[in-house]
Each structure stands twice: as C-alpha cells, then as structure tokens.
Design brief:
It is a single chain. The termini are far apart. Strand 3 and strand 4 form a beta hairpin. The protein has one domain. It is mostly beta strands. The radius of gyration is 17 Å and the shape is extended. It has 1 helix and 5 strands; from the N terminus they run βββββα.
C-alpha cells in the first residue's frame, strides 16, 4: 500500500492471489472538503482482464450537524434495508 504523506490517506494498493501473482490494483484520489481530506474516487483494476470499476463520489459534504440518534444500531440496520 502506498500512502500520501501529506494527507496520510492511501493512494494505491496492490492485491495478490494465493500464488503471489498480482491480481488487482486499487488507486484512490483524495480531495479537500472543508478542513478534511477525504477519498473521492476509487479505481479497482483487474490486471489480468484489463477491466476496471470506478467509484466516483460527488457532492461530498462534511460537518452537517447530524444528531447522534441517527447512528443507533436500530437506525443503521433500518437504513440498510431501504
């Protein structure tokens, strides 16, 4: 894993199969949102097939003054079912 020293966030990770062969490479882009550095784009590339999956986060917001009751176990389980 490669970590950006200035943000202390990962920027690259290599995944290997059971035989030690490189299987996938994940890269991550980090952006400043307010006073925080947050991951905003992930690319997972299968090096064998050349295919990739991209997760691109848009409109990331922080410090939204969310109430602690939102994060109860009951509410979190209910949110998953939606």
């Amino acid at each position: 894993m490669t970590v950006d020293k200035s943000t202390e966030l990962p920027v690259r990770a290599e995944l290997y199969d059971d035989s030690g062969q490189l299987f996938k490479v994940e890269t991550q882009e980090n952006s400043r949102v307010g006073k925080y550095w947050v991951p905003t784009k992930f690319v997972m590339e299968n090096v064998r097939t050349g295919t990739s999956t991209i997760l691109d986060l848009k409109n990331v917001r922080v410090d939204q003054n969310l109430g602690v009751e939102i994060f109860t176990e009951r509410n979190l389980k209910r949110s998953v079912g939606r």
